[in-house]
Amino acid sequence: MMMIYTLVSENNKHRVYKVVSDNDEGTIIVNKQTHEASSQGAFSSMFSKEFIEKLAVGTLKFKTNPPKEFTYGVG
């Protein structure tokens, strides 16, 4: 099972990733000030929503050059 995160947009307040896994697709919006995330759409039932959001929040350590795409996989 793989989740593919693709950077959709970024501004001073938010970073937005599209997350695709199998037949599921959702969006994670990361607030850069609070380091909290919100999500919309369907996500893999293999991982909790909190875990999926946490991976996107982790990209904030890359302040000026965030990953345009990254993959998380198991199995």
Write a brief caption for the model.
This protein has one domain. Helices cover 12% and strands 48% of the residues.
Task: Walk me through this protein's architecture.
With about 80 residues, the chain is mostly beta strands. The protein has one domain (about 1-75). It has one helix and five strands, in the order E-E-E-E-H-E. It has one helix at about 50-55, and strands at about 1-10, 15-20, 25-30, 35-40, 70-75. The protein is globular, with a radius of gyration of 11 Å. The mean pLDDT is about 95.
Summarize the SSE layout with pairings.
Blueprint: E1 2-10, E2 14-21, E3 24-31, E4 36-41, H1 49-57, E5 69-73
Antiparallel strand pairs: 1-2, 1-5, 2-3, 3-4
Features of this protein?
75 residues; mainly beta; 5-stranded antiparallel β-sheet; 1 helix; 5 strands; 12% helix; globular
- Biggest sheet overview: 5 strands, antiparallel
Assembly type of the shown chains? single chain
Percent helix, as a range, is 10-25%
The count of strands amounts to 5
Strand order across the biggest sheet? Answer: 4-3-2-1-5
| Low-pLDDT ranges | none
The proportion of strand residues reads: over 45%
Summed up, the helix count is 1
Rounded mean pLDDT score: 94
Count of discrete structural domains: 1
Structural class: mainly beta
Radius of gyration over C-alpha positions, nearest whole angstrom: 11 Å
Which sequence of SSEs, written as H and E, runs from N to C?
Answer: EEEEHE
Rough outline: globular
Task: Tell me the span between the first and last alpha carbons.
Answer: 6 Å
